[in-house]
Amino acid sequence: MPSPALLSAYILAGPEIGRRELFMREIAETLAAKEGQAAEYSRFYAQDMPPERLVGFLRNASLFSPRRLVEYRNAEALSSKQDQEALIAYIRSPAEDAVLLLVTEAYGLAKALEEAVGSRGKKIFWELRDSEKPQWLRDRLARDRLSADEEAIETVLELVENETAALEAACTVLAACFPAQHRLSPEDIEAALSRSRREDAFSLFDRMVQGELESALGVLDALLSDRQSESSQIMAALIWSFRTLERLHRGLDRGMELEEAFRAEKIGTKTGQRKFRAALGRYNKGECARILKAASETEAALRSGYPSSFARSFLQLFVRSAMAKKGSGLILSGWKEEEYYPFD
């Protein structure tokens, strides 16, 4: 086995990417210390690498390194009993040179897989609580001998995805932009982070709200080219955004003030409120409902067994439908590539 301190397989669950990556780095360092050289690292995705092929890969020893670290992302996609049984059989009789990491942003996997890995092998990486984030940022900035007032800290949390990997990257940018002992202002934060901000599915929603079709499609292409962003995650973020927008409309229809509706949806930041004000002006409640129906149809198409290469086409079609037709007219059943651009 790789080491008495390590298991042959782990389930790494939960949305907190930074803490998960730190744990993976610790495993890699343990393997390197034992062998005197880095382990061979491989990353695969469940939608691209079926379990049978993954097991075949794990059974074939490396020619270049005595130890291997194999990351298998989106493991929650293994919903069929056949897929699970292939991995369970491997976990019960693993390769001697490999550590397998089953990664999911959900909080767990199928019960049979969890039982095979065992409680010691399941690690859940919880998000920081909102109350913990400001102090985490202050402590991290202090490592680079920077400080920030309360408004500057709030600006960071408005501009950056609130998980530790993204916050860590933001602090690295700030340390590169400002000298030691500098006290950061909101203007400093805005200037430094807006230039280096990485696109995500929520910035895709921003472009859609602004009505910038070509810009939105450009962001989508960038997200899909970066394997950190999966089609399912992009759709989940867009669905969350449009559901939130629909609930805001319902609250306003019931006579709520806008600030009250924002509080009900926990939209507390100025950036978030500005975005949803614009969204309320662009999409009415009925249009939100149609877009959510189109999103459901797109999700079904993504799960229906088409090759993963079709995901870009389905997502582009959804974005075009939501922006050009406000969600009407999207029909993906019997989809054909030559019918891909119905709104040109």
Short description:
The protein is α/β, with parallel strands linked by helices. It has helices at residues 17-35, 51-59, 81-92, 111-117, 133-143, 150-159, 164-177, 186-196, 201-210, 213-225, 231-253, 258-264, 270-282, 285-302, 311-324, and strands spanning 9-13, 40-45, 68-73, 98-103, 122-124, 147-148, 183-184.
Account of the 3D structure:
The protein is α/β, with parallel strands linked by helices. 56% of the residues lie in helices and 9% in strands. The strands form 2 sheets. A 5-stranded parallel sheet has the order 2-3-4-1-5, covered by helices on one side. Strands 6-7 form a two-stranded parallel sheet. Strand 2, helix 2 (51-59) and strand 3 (68-73) form a beta-alpha-beta unit.
Q: Approximately what portion of the residues adopt beta-strand conformation? A: 5-15%
Order of helices and strands: EHEHEHEHEHEHHEHHHHHHHH
Strand order of the largest sheet: 2-3-4-1-5
**Termini distance?**
58 Å
Main β sheet profile: 5 strands, parallel
**Oligomeric state of the chains present here:** single chain
Radius of gyration: 23 Å
> Fraction of residues in helices?
55-70%
The poorly predicted ranges are 331-344
* DSSP summary, beta strand count: 7
Summed up, the helix count is 15
Large-scale geometry: globular
> Mean pLDDT, nearest integer?
85
SS-based class: alpha/beta
